[in-house]
Specification:
This protein is α/β, with parallel strands linked by helices and 491 residues long. The protein folds into 2 domains: 28-62 and 435-490, Immunoglobulin-like (Sandwich), CATH 2.60.40; 66-427, TIM Barrel (Alpha-Beta Barrel), CATH 3.20.20.80. It is built from 12 helices and 23 strands. The strands form 4 sheets. Strands 1, 2, 3, 4, 16, 17, 18, 20, 21 and 23 form a 10-stranded mixed sheet that branches. Strand 14 (403-405) and strand 15 (412-414) form a beta hairpin. Helix 6 (226-245) packs across helix 7, helix 7 (272-290) packs across helix 8 and helix 11 packs parallel to helix 12. The longest helix is centred in the middle third of the chain and has 20 residues, at 226-245. The chain is globular and about 70 Å long. It starts with a helix and ends with a strand.
């Protein structure tokens, strides 16, 4: 055979071989070893078979992903400020700089005090100041505004939405930030402790609310009068303007965090009917003028009828652009997704854990991500960005976080839940579409980015390593997943 013919034959073989194989990047995490770059795999058409454990067709797409993120709260910033400035900046870069780490792009913030604030406060505690002459965000200039600005130094395009935990106290029937008495809760916890039952509270801090001024689910604690509705809509408007003056745009608001829950920390129960009245006649028109989206929520009950009430109200529904779900609200999500397939759905707050930041908490986070993303959410957000060791709030609740800062402020660690988030958010970019994955193995999420790259995230919560066959189009690769691991594959 002539030399030129031999060379041609070799080139053809090489080209054919390249068409038959595709490189697959692979990153894994376990509790002991996080973010390990595993050996590159080969996806080979010759091994493709119909009975693969996971079968993915990138042309069969579902919802478009708007982004992943975390939340800005006061204890998040004060804990980060315990660290030296270079360490703190490295964390912010890891979380927010595009392509660096977590790639967080959409974040939540509170409107005034929340359960992880330093203390009670609102932006206007001047009684019956319906014109908001005494409105001020001075408190936020100490914590929230520096926190957000620090993050925006690494990504100026971060999108932020906001929700209050409580309106000013003078707008509530009980004239208090809280809705439930800690004294009653202390008695309940004592009874549970005697029965050997644990609680989510590390300690109970007296909030000063008498039991005869408690609020209850299914009632409106906000004063249902026009002058109060108008004043509260103006309160939101002032908030948007004040933050804009600080160089921080708020793209959307939800009228109330966990509107069904009477909490010992800042909170306010509303009925869905009361919120529909407020949004339809007052908040919606004011926010619409400012180009700010109104989103319903946050939904923390498994009750589709609450969403129906909002969307069946003609005045309210024309302003509601999305619905946010958290906690038990996740059980209403499948029904809402099926009933309103074109509605934008948001996971507004991941469940907070118990301050232990262990692998069990991480696997629960992974299960939550699968549930929410498989049921249509386009935005997925964590709650506590950073906390001190133990994660104890002003009100005594111990919670998990993405970063834990040591008591002396000399060190920190990224928690397992951070890596669970990163396994998805680092690779799945805004504009990606979720892909339906079929087959016998369902511990999987899959996405296709706008550049055509396919992202497969697979968990193995079993006690033994597991070999999988994963077929994407006509190519199959066969990784062996470590026990109790999360894995991301990029094709």
């Amino acid at each position: 055979m002539e030399l030129k013919n031999i060379l041609f034959f070799v080139l053809v073989c090489i080209a054919f071989s390249c068409s038959k194989q595709e490189k697959v990047e692979w990153v894994s995490s376990t509790y002991e070893n996080s973010w390990v770059n595993e050996p590159v795999l080969t996806a080979d058409a010759s091994s493709g078979k119909e009975d693969a454990d996971v079968v993915i067709d990138p042309t069969k797409t579902k919802q478009t992903i708007a982004g992943f993120g975390t939340c800005f709260n006061e204890l998040g910033w004060t804990s980060l400020c315990k660290l030296d400035s270079s360490t703190r900046e490295s964390i912010l870069k890891e979380m927010f700089y595009p392509g660096e780490g977590a790639n967080f792009t959409i974040c939540r913030m509170p409107v005034a005090a929340n359960d992880f604030a330093l203390d009670w406060y609102s932006y206007n505690e001047a009684d019956k100041d319906f014109e908001m002459k005494n409105f001020s965000i001075d408190n936020d200039r100490k914590t929230l505004i520096p926190f957000i600005k620090a993050a925006k130094r690494y990504n100026s395009d971060i999108k932020i939405w906001a929700s209050p935990w409580s309106p000013p106290t003078w707008m509530k029937y009980n004239k208090h930030y809280a809705s439930s008495s800690t004294m009653k809760m202390a008695r309940l916890f004592k009874e549970r402790a005697q029965d050997g039952e644990s609680t989510y509270m590390f300690k109970v801090v007296d909030n000063g609310l008498p039991e005869d001024r408690e609020g209850f689910e299914g009632t409106d604690m906000f004063i249902q009068e026009e002058e109060y509705f108008k004043a509260y809509a103006l309160y939101f408007s002032k908030f948007i303007d004040a933050y804009k003056a600080e160089g921080i745009d708020i793209f959307g608001v939800m009228p109330q965090n966990e509107f069904n829950s009477a909490q010992i920390f800042p909170s306010c129960c509303w009925t869905a009917r009361g919120l529909a009245e407020f949004v339809g006649k007052y908040l919606g028109p004011v926010m619409n003028e400012k180009g700010v989206e109104v989103m319903f929520g946050t939904m923390e009950r498994p009750n589709v009828a609450l969403v129906d009430t909002i969307l069946n109200d003609s005045e309210c529904s024309k302003y509601v652009k999305a619905v946010g779900f958290q906690w038990a609200g996740k059980d209403a999500l499948p029904g809402v997704y099926a009933k309103y397939p074109d509605l934008k759905l948001i996971q507004s707050e991941q469940e907070c854990g118990d301050g232990k930041n262990n692998w069990e908490g991480a696997t629960h986070s992974w299960d939550l991500m699968k549930h929410y993303l498989k049921n249509g959410v386009s935005i997925y957000e964590y709650w506590n960005t950073s906390l001190m060791q133990g994660g104890i709030s002003r009100w005594g609740w111990a919670q998990n976080s993405l970063v834990v800062v040591s008591e002396d402020g000399k060190s920190f660690k990224y928690t397992p839940e951070y890596y669970i988030m990163k396994h998805v958010s680092h690779y799945v970019l805004p504009g990606a579409k979720r892909i339906e994955a079929s087959g016998s193995y369902d511990d999987v999420l899959a996405f296709v980015n706008q550049d055509g790259s396919v992202i497969v995230i697979a968990g193995n919560n079993g006690s033994a390593d597991k070999k999988l066959s994963i077929k994407v189009n006509d190519k199959t690769f066969t990784p062996t997943l470590k026990s109790k691991s999360i894995n991301t594959f990029v094709l």
